[in-house]
Amino acid sequence: MKTKNLSRRTFLKGAGLAVAAPLAVPLAVPSSVFGDENKAAPSERITVAHIGAGGLGRMVFSWTQRVKEAQSVAVADCFKSRRDGVAAACKGKAYLDYREILQRDDIDAVLIITPDHWHVPIALEACKAKKHTHVAKPLGLSLGQNAACRKAFAESGLTFQYGTQQRSMPHCWKGCELVRRGVIGAITALEVDAPNGGAGGSTAEAPIPADLGEDGYAMWTGPGAKRPYTNDRCRGPGTYWIYDYSIGYLAGWGAHPLDMMVWGSEADLSGPVVVEGTGVVPAEGLYDVVYNWNMNIRFGTIPFTFKTGSDRTRFIGETGWIEVRRGAGVEGGDPNAWGTNMESKGLSASDPKLLQIPLGDKEPLLKRTASANHIDDFIRSIKSGEQPGSTLKDALRSDNISHLCDIAVRTQSAVRFDPLKQELIAPTKEQQAIADRAV
Fold this sequence. Notes:
- It is a single chain.
- The chain is an alpha/beta fold.
- The chain has a domain of 165 residues: 3-Layer(aba) Sandwich (Rossmann fold).
- Helix content is 31%, strand content 18%.
- It is built from 15 helices and 15 strands.
- It has a 9-stranded mixed beta sheet with strand order 13-12-11-7-10-9-8-14-15. A 6-stranded parallel beta sheet has the order 3-2-1-4-5-6, sandwiched between helices.
- Helix 7 packs across helix 11.
- The longest helix has 20 residues.
- The chain is globular, with a radius of gyration of 21 Å.
- The N terminus is likely disordered.
C-alpha cells in the first residue's frame, strides 16, 4: 500500500487506522486486574476492542482493565510497538487495520481513541457493524460530520458514549447538579476558558519512522489530506494543531469546559446562537489551527464568553455564581483515586455556602455514575440499555459551539446557528464550505 496511491475517497471506502497523539503514558495496569477472580464470568463480560493506543488510548485501556465486566480482546494502531504492547498486556490480538476488528462477531464494543479526523469516520463504520461505541473528544472535523454521526446513531439502538470523562467525576456532577437545581437562580451569563494552542511545527520532510512505516503513515493520514511526513505531524501537539486533522484546542481542549456548560444548563438551547470573536491562524509553520481566541457569543439573550486560559466553566445566575474546574486535583491514571481533595480544588462559588446546600435524597436531575471510571459507565450502559452519562446529544451541543467559533474566526464574520435544528442560519458560501468540510 503506497501513500501516493490512496485517494481520500478510496481510503474512506476501505482504509486503515489512525491513532491517538503519542503522549508519554505507560501501560500502568496492575497485573491483578487480569486475573479471572477480578472479572465477571465470561458470559457476563462485554468484549471490547481498542482503536488507537497512543497516550490517551493507553490510559483508557488501563481504565478498561479495572472494569469487572469488560474484557479487552483486540487493539488496532498504526504504530507496531503500540498495538503489540497493548495486545500483549490483555492477551488479545493486534491489528494494523481497524476494519478487521469491526468484522469480528465476538466483539461487542469499540473504544475509538484516535486523532480527531478519524473519530467520526470510524464511528460511522462501527455503527454499521453494530458495535457499541465510545468516541474520544472532540467529536467531528465539522458541523457536517457531527450531523452524519447524529443521523447514524439516532435509531441504531447502540450505546454511544462521548469521552468527556469529567461527567464521571463527583465534583463536576455536584457543581452542575446544584446549578440545575437553581441554587443561583436563572442563568444570566456564562464564562468558559480553555488552554491555548500555538504556532510552529517543522514543515521539513523527514523519513517515516520504522515503527510506523509507509503503510502505517498512510493509515494514520486516512481521510485527511495526503502530506509528506514531518517529524511534528504524527505526535503532539501536531495531531491537535493541524487543520487537516483537527480544529485545535477550540475543540480538543474546549470540549471539556464546554461540556460542563451544557451539562449544567440549557442556556445554549434558549434561542438563536450568534458567534463573533477574534483569533489567530498561523501563517507559517506546520500548525495552522486557531489559537489566542476570544469569542463573544449569545445564546438567545444570554451572553457567553469563550476564551483561552485555564480549564473552567462559570455559571452566573441571578443570585450568585458557581465555577467548575474539571482537572483540579486529578493526579495519576487511576480514576478511583480522583476524589481525593477534588471537590475543594475543583469547585468554587460566589458564596461558599452555596456548595454546602444539601442535595438530599431527591432523584438527581443529572445522571450520577457508579464510579469515577468513565469506562465503567460505558459498560454498565451497554448492559442496562440506559443512556450513559456522556451522550451523543450533548456531545453535539458542545462540539458544535467549537465549530461555530472556528468558522467565525476564519471568515472574520458573525455566525448564526439554530440550536434546535442544528444548522447555520443564512450562512455565507464561505461559512457553509467550512461547515461541510470532510463530509
